[in-house]
């Protein structure tokens, strides 16, 4: 479900930024990766058509890849459900993925000899920002993706 809400975080006193938000919960089974990707793509489509938010083709492609990688990691390293929070603030998409795993993910440095474990390396190369926070249960990985192409 999408919500349009005032956001006071990071705003100057007395100013408001409007954001569009959707949340989804996935069971953590094999189909949740594709379901999360479809959910994020549909959210961007609704933001574009229903709210007039400019969303580039690149932003949709990056979002699909980033969601796939983050949900894959959540499913692989943490048992149980995966929660996804999508929020558009200004011209940026913020994606937060929560899982129950206590261990924080490690972004490995580039190594062309390494087989596998390149997911977070790819994610951090594509996003504007990447952060991980511990929660009372589990962790939350949050990334920000620009919705417009750089000029």
TrEMBL record:
Protein keywords: ATP-binding, Kinase, Nucleotide-binding, Serine/threonine-protein kinase, Transferase
SUPFAM superfamilies: ATPase domain of HSP90 chaperone/DNA topoisomerase II/histidine kinase
Pfam short name (any one): HATPase_c_2
Keyword GTP-binding on entry: no
GO MF: ATP binding; protein serine/threonine kinase activity
Histidine kinase/HSP90-like ATPase domain residues: 35-144
Record-given protein name: ATP-binding protein
Species per Swiss-Prot/TrEMBL record: Streptomyces griseoviridis
């Amino acid at each position: 479900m999408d919500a349009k809400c005032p956001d006071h975080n990071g705003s100057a006193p007395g100013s408001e930024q409007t954001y569009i938000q959707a949340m989804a919960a996935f069971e953590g089974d094999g189909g949740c990766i594709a379901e999360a990707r479809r959910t994020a793509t549909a959210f961007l489509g609704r933001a574009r058509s229903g709210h007039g938010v400019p969303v580039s083709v690149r932003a949709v492609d990056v979002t699909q890849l980033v969601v796939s990688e983050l949900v894959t990691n959540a499913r692989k390293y943490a048992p149980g459900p995966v929660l996804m929070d999508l929020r558009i603030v200004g011209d940026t998409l913020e994606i937060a993925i929560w899982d129950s795993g206590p261990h924080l993910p490690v972004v490995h440095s580039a190594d062309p000899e390494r087989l596998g474990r390149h997911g977070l390396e790819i994610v951090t190369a594509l996003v504007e920002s990447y952060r991980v926070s511990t929660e009372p249960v589990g962790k939350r990985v949050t990334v920000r993706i620009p919705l417009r192409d750089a000029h």
